[in-house]
Amino acid sequence: MASKFQNRLVGTIILVSIGVIVLPDVLDGKKTHYKEEIASIPIKPELESDVETFEILEPEDDSSALPPTPVEVIVQAEDQQDPQLDAQPQPVVIKEVPERNEYQESAWIIQLMALKNADNAKNVVKDLQKRGYQAHTKLDNGFTRVIIGPDISKNKLERQIQELEKITGSKGRLLKFKPLNP
């Protein structure tokens, strides 16, 4: 037989479970349900009877005031040429334009290191950029070169070489910057 304590415990559990399940529904009161009010858009808007009408004007012909087009002038010039000149082809002269590098004497870069692993070079560049350096990578003959610059001040880059040697452990070279042929 069950003891008095067990009977009381089972009774208490039944009463508490009924209270937890039934009482919130009884004490909650009238529930309100919210519905969204939807406004429908009319298919065809209602028009007022006072609709404005506009008169459409025909465009005016004003072509007589315009000068002749450049194409017409060229055609007239070709008609006036001597037919003997058209028979002989003109030789084509190709002029080579020398490379203009305005920064060749004044811009400088630091070539810090050349690495075979491009990921390592990119990590070095990211670290240097976080430290405030203008760092870049350049692919060259299977190596990825880490470059600092360009900068106009040669003295500034010379000071940076010493700082970069402390950071990376490699001594960089100061080179002239050629923007057309980096």
Please explain how this structure is put together.
The chain is 37% helix and 15% strand. The chain has 182 residues and is of the alpha+beta class. It has a domain at 108-176: Alpha-Beta Plaits (2-Layer Sandwich). A hairpin with a 2-residue loop joins strand 2 and strand 3 (143-151). The longest helix is centred in the first third of the chain and has 24 residues, at 4-27. Mean pLDDT is 77; it is low at 71-79.
Helix/strand layout:
Layout (H helix, E strand, L loop, with lengths): L3 H24 L42 H10 L3 H5 L20 E8 L2 H13 L4 E6 L2 E9 L2 H15 L4 E4 L6
Antiparallel strand pairs: 1-3, 1-4, 2-3
GO molecular function: peptidoglycan binding
Organism: Vibrio renipiscarius
InterPro entries: Cell_div_SPOR-domain, SPOR-like_dom, SPOR-like_sf
Shape: flat
Number of strands: 4
Distance between the termini: 99 Å
CATH class of the domain at 108-176: Alpha Beta
Q: Beta-strand level of the residues, as a percent range? A: 5-15%
Helical residue percent band: 25-40%
Report the CATH architecture of the domain at 108-176: 2-Layer Sandwich
List the uncertain runs: 71-79
CATH topology of the domain at 108-176: Alpha-Beta Plaits
